[in-house]
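User: These chains co-purify. Model them together.
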Amino acid sequence: MAETENSIAIPQDFESLKTIILERKAQLPKRLRQVAAYALDNPDEIAFGTAASIATSADVQPSTLVRFAQHFGFEGFSSLQQIFRARLRERTPGYDERLKALSGNDHSKLESGSIFNGFVAAAHRSLDNIASSVEPEAFERAVNILAAAETIYLVAKRRSYPISGYMAYAFGKLKVKYQMVGTAAGVDDDILAMAGPKDAAFAVSFSPYASESVNQAKLLANRKVPVVSLTDSAFSPLAESSKVWFELVEADHAGFRSLSASMAFAMALTVAVAEKRRRNGEDHSME
Amino acid sequence: MAETENSIAIPQDFESLKTIILERKAQLPKRLRQVAAYALDNPDEIAFGTAASIATSADVQPSTLVRFAQHFGFEGFSSLQQIFRARLRERTPGYDERLKALSGNDHSKLESGSIFNGFVAAAHRSLDNIASSVEPEAFERAVNILAAAETIYLVAKRRSYPISGYMAYAFGKLKVKYQMVGTAAGVDDDILAMAGPKDAAFAVSFSPYASESVNQAKLLANRKVPVVSLTDSAFSPLAESSKVWFELVEADHAGFRSLSASMAFAMALTVAVAEKRRRNGEDHSME
DNA sequence: GCCTTTATGAAACATAAATTCCGTCATTTC
DNA sequence: GAAATGACGGAATTTATGTTTCATAAAGGC
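Assistant: Joint model of the four components:
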């Protein structure tokens, strides 16, 4: 039987394997394509896992993994796995190189490279700051407030809007009731009128502060709705209306700021709230 | 059975394991010391090899490896091996201090702290990857394409939406003509109908891919509109329609991903495009 | 519409692995 | 110098892993 009459050679390194997989991707059967996608997206899993564990993660049968390997000329799954392991071995991270890679990498040779480097570096700096500027106790309190809320109102405009947008997406997936404020014009007041002390709000506003956000936060605070806020200055007008507030200064590159740290913060808060709710009791979590 | 009455805790990461081994090295029996030396000299072997193969290499019996592991409080050899594997997985940072600051800071004491730490760490990892996964040449090409465009169409749904949202905000401030696709339902086709070869599009889609985004990218490509895309898998259907595409895998914490690296990337691209336009000529930049 | 081919899932099999157990040896202590 | 304690090597045991096989399902061709 000429099972593996390889007109083409068996890939010996990860890069060529990746290339071949991408080339043949279209012609692959459904399950094999599924494995291919999983393999390229989670190479580390392939390297360390067992056939059984990988099969579970990728949602296929172990035999499919073997077939996949054989499809590309390997004797069995194990020999394919070697490629993935070699990749980790050789790519000895050499962490120093990694840092060097940032300051001295190919990017800087090209025109736009320094801009790219600048933003990555700025994001790193932002994240360095975040651990020190966010107090654990405050974070805990914020989580408690939001976890106890019936509905979480998300207040954000302009530059902050993507943050609440992402939180909304995540809350939706996590089955946490939320309400975005400030999407369509005009109806905001009606939405806010429904908020009460049993709810809570999360407001984000960076300088220059959108006056609507500030006003809406005030309005909510007056209605005894506990407000948690994220801002970039202790002088932010948001702080007055907030039970808990966080000051998070994003590092900038050439005056422009990305939202890297804010996104990490937002996601942490979102998941922490969901987690807290889950723990607090399955009794009334799904109403 | 008080075999392992650990007055001290079992090491959970490679660094602390290394420290403990070095501390106790002097008091170790001969063979165990032999294993200790081998382990620290050939960590990769420990990570990938089997107990039998390692034993042969280190010139000891397999049972000695088990004894060694138990000596340090592990249940068996396998659990010790996990430490060595984790080291390779998590590209143990050359940023030692940074991570140590993370795992050892006040946050870990509190309930939600580990979630917070997890997301900050994940964001760091994402940014570590970004420099290596984004090719400078590709970035340059993407900048050129978008800088040359009359109008930049931003295509993104769901999880990717905040990215294009932020780019829209920044483009607005930078006076770069753009058009968001997919905000209000229904009018998308009309908007896309205006796009032509002189324009360009930037599409973002992460798994699971929103079919509208994919279709719209295809549509644009068919209309000879150059498409630049950002995705998280080489398998993304977006890739086919794109002139340039970037694969950017956000590291996850407990299965949830933030958008930290994507945000840095988006901002870098946005500013680079604006900068390029500014340089290309003040003549027609302000029309 | 039927038949052939190919893909897929589930379980069985054989193998290789990790771990445990026990006998032997060396070193120390009384 | 004898007994005891601990280390070590090697084999036995048990676990679990990769692979193969077979039956079924889906797809494609005539």
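Chain A has 14 helices and seven strands.
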